[in-house]
Amino acid sequence: MLDIVLVLAVFGTLLVVVALSQPLAERLGLAPVVLLAVIGGAMGAASGFLLQSSLSSHFGDVVRLFADLPLGAETFIYVFLPLLVFEAAFTSDVRRIIEDAAPILMLAVIATIVTAAIVGLALWPFAALPLTVCLLLGAVISTTDPAAVIAVFRDVGAPARLTRLVEGEALLNDAAAIVLYTVLLGIIVSGRPPVLGHGAIEFVRSFLGGAVLGLIAGRAFLELIPWTRDDRLAEGTLTVALAYLSFIAAQRLFDVSGVVAVLAASLTVSAFGRTRIAPYNWSFLKDLWEQIAFWAHSLVFLLASILVPRLLFDMHWRDLELVAVLIIAAFGARLAVLFLLLPILSLVRLTQPISTAYKLAIAWGGLRGALTLVLALGVTENPALPHEVRRFVGVLATGLVMFTLLVNGTTLRGVIRLLGLDRLSPIDRLLRDRVLELSFAETSDMIAKTAQEHDLHPEAVERALAPYKARQAAAGFREAVGEIALSDHDRMTVALVALGNQERMLVLDTLARRAASPAALQALMRNADALVEGARSGGRLGYKRAAEAALAFPFSFKAAYFVYRRLGVSRFVGDRLGDRFETLLVTRLLIQELGGAAAKRSRSIFGERVGKLIDSILQARLDQTKSGLDVLRRQYLDYAAALEARFLRQSALRREMGRYQALFEGGLIPAEVYRDLKNSVENAQNAEVPPRFDIGLDTRALIVRLDMFAGLDERHLESVQKLLRPRFTVPKEVIVRKGTPGDALYFIASGAAEVVLPARRIPFGSGDFFGELSLLTGEPRVADVRALTYCRLLVLRKADFDRFMRDNRDVRLKIHEIAQKRWAVNRADPAAAV
Question: Which segments of 194-278 does DSSP mark as H helices, in order?
């Protein structure tokens, strides 16, 4: 039995190695994982040598511990893998990844299968082993390790899209490779002949099953968040539990992919958690997971690298030939995907074109790392496999990992520079130089005032300003020679992208202040992202289209309205309408803030002309948002008042909290008093219950709103109530369609509609009715009737019309009177028929 003190001492030593390797790698210009691989391999080789030498007696258990690590593949998979997968997805920008979903899926899923196939077919003639074994090796080495690559990309300032493509590929690549690895390993161990159809079905079942389970787990986590009451330690603990429980449940309970389950759960939290978790807690969670992933990734790499000498112990010259074939096949497969398959996506317009420089960087950056070593270790430890299969996979996979780390990993930085991907784009250079220009003006004033206050020598001022003058002169020279010759369209595009990012930051501030519900915040975040992407891809027109789409009914509302129209369930459409009300209200406030003096000053870097255009765009958005909000407000005044009152109360509570905090930080009140005051405000905030939106379809309440029924006694009102059915409509909905048979009479309890005629429009308002002519004459409808606003109608079906007219004499007379007038108008002007 191992001495626990010795194990902990070794573990602590490895943490010291991990910590010191970071600054050392930076000093040597290497990626940290490359240095860790070298250190781990050296430790493994040294421990093996010492164990066989006479020095072993001096080191005892320490040497044996390193030479024969008591860690198997299952330990790596169950302890470290859930943490690595969860962190990679949690820190990803899901919406930006969705933008490049097509190439990422191609690089991850399709490329994994293509790589396994090409590698398997390339090695099969040389390996003297079954094709399934060669395909298994292809699955093992098809995983890519993005850590070293992304670190280099960030160091040299590579484009954001290049980093995003590599991150997105790594997210799904690991999941696809492990699923394929599991399927192939099961075929080999079972000894059954491989059947392509069965393997494909198993792959899809495991992948999709894990995705569904992860989605459910992620949603369950989000439902638990309110119970933590913004306790960041509790939220962090829940995320760790989510990673492990979703992985174990998928692997052991449901026999689906645990990696895919963790991936789906983490992506769900990443996509929807920003609007449910306070921003300062979200930052804490990201820092927490960055630290966890750093430990996990570094330890996995170091421990797996210690095993490398053992895996390569009986390597022969013949193996070097196979490794060479493997290297050529692996890179050939990657180039085939990048240069043959990806262009197809661009041709069918599923993605923006990816430049040749990007493709070459992605190809050379396809490093294999810890997961490849872990999967290879899983094969070497499987007693059900023949020795030659275990040796074949272990040696060749390890050889490829070491090649990519020591060759690709050490030269990737130079390749990026050679491809010119370390330089800012013209648009980014323009922004940098414009910021430098404004910064120089502000800095000059500040330095001059400081020198004057402290009576400093003018020469000191000149020396302090010299670096700014040199950088400004360089920027001016670049613009003068046309290096930054951007069109007005490009400048406007940059400004609108920045405007969208400003709006996104205001949404996050709204989240921090708890000034809106999670559903409204989710919509606001989605709209802000759409504005950024619309501006980036389509400039001013793209921004305008995104702004118009933000005012349209989302899919969730359309689905809820479909349920209401088909099943008569109004609760869901009411909830969505309440969300829309709140979204429009907060959007109006955000646009007003974007048009304020402080926001305008921050946009001054784009120039006066662009600033005026942005002001006009914001004013147009504000007018459209107000119009949409007023349409709702007129129908639901009580809800509008309740919603705005809640907003004011929340604002007052935030100001109150800020006042108490300022007093505490200023030392004017003790901690005990501050804590009591803070608790009182938090209790008041938690006691605030959002108003529930009522769509207002109570038949009796709607009847009372109609003057036509004002003279009816209680008995007649009850009989009328039994015959009339309430109905809710949205703006632009066609209530009555021309040419259809008359099947109902419609009373407008609230809202407005119009008769659509070839030459003109005839408006109807609250208290009016329509549809009676077709019921009285039996003729088809002669025109469309369309809702202008949200309407609440009372519908009298044809089957009840005669009874209604018979039992309600006064109402019957009014209907006939108006019908006679409409008949007269129709006979005098058929084109104006109602």
Answer: 196-228, 232-248, 258-272
How far is the first Cα of the chain from the last one, in angstroms, to the nearest whole number? 94
pLDDT 10s digits, 110-119: 778 888 889 8
**Alpha-carbon span 292 to 243, nearest angstrom:** 12
Amino acid found at 745: L
- For residue 599, count other CB atoms closer than 10 A to its CB: 17
Question: Distance (Å, rounded) from C-alpha 329 to C-alpha 116?
Answer: 10
- Check: CB of residue 733 under 8 Å from CB of residue 788: no
Range 338-361 burial, b when 16+ CB lie within 10 A, else e: beeebeebeeeeebeebeebbbbb
Confidence tier at 100 by pLDDT (50, 70, 90): low
Share the mean pLDDT of the chain.
Answer: 80
Inter-residue contact 801 to 742 (CB < 8 Å): no
Do the Cβ atoms of 393 and 134 come closer than 8 Å?
no
Two structure tokens written together for 759: 């030459």
pLDDT at 162 over 80: no
Q: What is the dihedral of CA 221, 224, 230, 235, to 10 degrees?
A: -40
Quick check: helix, strand or coil at residue 668?
coil
Give the SS3 label for residue 694.
coil
pTM listed for this prediction = 0.68
Q: Where are the beta strands (DSSP E) in 630-752?
A: 724-729, 734-736, 744-750
Q: Is the pLDDT of residue 483 over 50?
A: no
Distance set, CA 629 to CA 550, 584, 815 (Å): 13, 6, 34
Most confident of 431-445, 510-524, 612-626: 612-626
Rounded Cα gap, residues 714 and 817, in angstroms: 25
Cβ contact 395:319 at 8 Å? yes
What is the distance between the alpha carbons of residues 64 and 51, in angstroms, rounded to a whole number?
A: 7
| C-alpha–C-alpha distance, residues 174 and 148, integer Å | 16
Q: For residues 570 and 296, what is the distance between their CA atoms, to the nearest angstrom?
A: 50
β-sheet bridge partners, residue 791: 729
Residue 833 is encoded by which pair of tokens?
Answer: 């028929």
∠ at Cα 622 (620, 627), nearest 5°?
100
The larger pLDDT score, comparing residue 139 to residue 170, is at 139
Q: Given its phi and psi angles, is residue 692 left (phi above 0), alpha (psi -120 to 50 degrees) or beta?
A: beta
Is residue 629 within 8 A of residue 551, CB to CB? The reply is no
Paired tokens of 225: 């968040």
- Residues 681 and 683: their CA atoms lie apart, in Å, by 5
**pLDDT value at 709 more than 90:** no
Three-state secondary structure call for residue 761? strand
CB 100 within 8 A of CB 165: yes
Share of the chain above pLDDT 70, in %: 82
For residue 624, the one-letter residue type is Q
Residue 572: half-sphere exposure toward Cβ, Cα within 13 Å? 15
Q: 750 by DSSP, 3-state: which?
A: strand
Tokens of 198: 């069965």
Within 13 Å, how many C-alpha atoms sit on residue 260's CB side? 26
Identity of the residue numbered 405: L
Cα separation of 152 and 146, whole Å?
10
pLDDT for position 288: 92
DSSP 277: S
The model's pLDDT over 636-667, given as tens digits with 9 standing for 90+, comes to: 888 888 888 888 888 788 888 888 888 888 88
**Residue that has been written with the tokens 């804490």 in this structure:** 284
CB 371 within 8 A of CB 143: yes
- Angstrom CA distances, 664 to 138, 222, 519, 659, stand at 62, 33, 34, 9
